[in-house]
Structure formats: structure tokens, C-alpha cells
Amino acid sequence: MSTDIRATTILPAERRPVTLTTADGLDLVGELALPPEGRTPAGTLVTLHPLPTHGGFMDSHVYRKAAWRLPALADLAVLRFNTRGTTSPAGRSQGEFDNGVGERFDVQAAIEYADFADLPNRWLIGWSFGTDLALMYGDDPTIDGLILLSPPLRYSRPEDLDRWGASGKPVVVLVPEFDDYLRPAEAAERFARIPQAEVIGVDGAKHLWVGEKYVQRAHNEIVKRVNPAAYPLATTWDGEFETFAE
Fold first, then answer.
1. Which Gene3D superfamilies match (predicted)?
2. b or e along 115-152 (b: 16 or more beta carbons within 10 Å of the residue's beta carbon)?
3. CA nearest 30: which of 20, 21, 39?
4. Residue 104 buriedness (CB in 10 A; 0-12 / 13-18 / 19+)
5. Domain parsing of the chain, residue ranges
6. What is the pLDDT of residues 159-209, one digit of tens each?
7. Spelled out in words, what is the top-level CATH class assigned to the domain 13-233?
8. Which of 67, 97, 103, 204 could form a disulfide with 78 if both were Cys (CB 3.0 to 4.6 A apart)?
């Protein structure tokens, strides 16, 4: 019997806690969600969360729901973690928030973990503050592409965009119509420094992507690039599942 996938639906996956160790000696709390047993990942999402001083963490809802759904629906591995000094229900990462400076080691630790774990087809996914971290520190040879949600372009600089442009890697920029920081028209102008960038305005959406239809839109845009065979995502599920209780 098919069941609608709702905001609280947790689909089957192999989920394991992970610890990322940075080059400057910090342990970061994280989780890796893999497709259910017997299925091989078709791609990997290395996620970078919103600003921790404004409530961002590895469990921010777009990423939490990605870990709940995308391993089962799209055969994607989802790596989430708390940057330095960030606390979530999974625990607190060592260190202190460093205004996007020391976080370069956090980004590299996550990329290296995905590499050492031999996870395939690795895409960096940034959201808000995480987009700045991705632009500044994520252009690693082992990363195949970049997807940005609600980029404020607050910490990153034009030279960071130029570096991604020179890489030739796919860059997808999802910009809410009513974003608090950067809206679609201005985003198109500023991301023109990346010739291959695809800037997509999302009608009705706001910076935090509140609302299931916006979460589904973000997930579908991600899956369309990372594992197009699974696009569009199913909205119902046949089989066992759990329900998250707040």
C-alpha cells in the first residue's frame, strides 16, 4: 500500500554516526546515510549547513529530510556534519565558530572523509553560510559539482567565483524569489562570473525553504543533477518507514 511521504517520514537507509577530524585537530560530529542494504550509492551529497550563530546545523530541515529520503528514493549517500562549535541533537563539534576562517578545515575534513570512504560522484551542497564555505574552500579535485541553496555571497569573494568558473565543473544556484539576502535577478548578475553556472529562481520560496513543496523542489533539483535516473522523486512510498516525533 502506498503512503504519502510527509514532513516527518523517515525512509529506510543505513545510517551511521561519523567523526570528522580536521587538520587543526578538532573532532566534528556527523552522520552518513547510505542507501538501504544491498544497494550501491549512485552519488554523494557532502552538505554544508547554514550559519550556526543563527540556528544552522547538520539537522537543518532541508538536509535532515535529504538524509531521511534520498538514500531510499534516489540511491544517494548523504553526509551531514556540524562545523566547529556547532551543536545539534547528534552532539557538539569541538572548537568555536570562526566566521568562515577556520571552517576551511571543516570543509576539507568532510571532502576527505567522502574520498577515503570511496563514495562515488561527490557533489558539494551548500545552504546559506554553507554556500560561502563551498565557494571559498570546496573546489577540490575529488568534488564533481556544486549546488548552492540561498547563497548570500557574504563571506565569499569574486575570486572564489572565478576559481569555480575556471574549474569548468557544474554549478547550480537555487535562489528563492523572496530571499532575505540575494534574489534571482541580482544572483544572475553576480554569478555571471561562473560561465557554466545555472541560476534558478524558485517562485514563492524564502531563504529558509520553509514548506514541503519548497523542500521537495530543492531535493528534486539536487537529484536531477546528481542522479537524473531518479528524477522526479517519488512522493509516495511502498514499504516500511518510520515517523519522526518532535
1. alpha/beta hydrolase
2. beeebeebbbbbbbbbbbbbbbbbbbeebbbbbbbbbb
3. 20
4. middle
5. 13-233
6. 999 999 999 999 999 999 999 999 999 999 999 999 999 999 999 999 999
7. alpha beta
8. 67
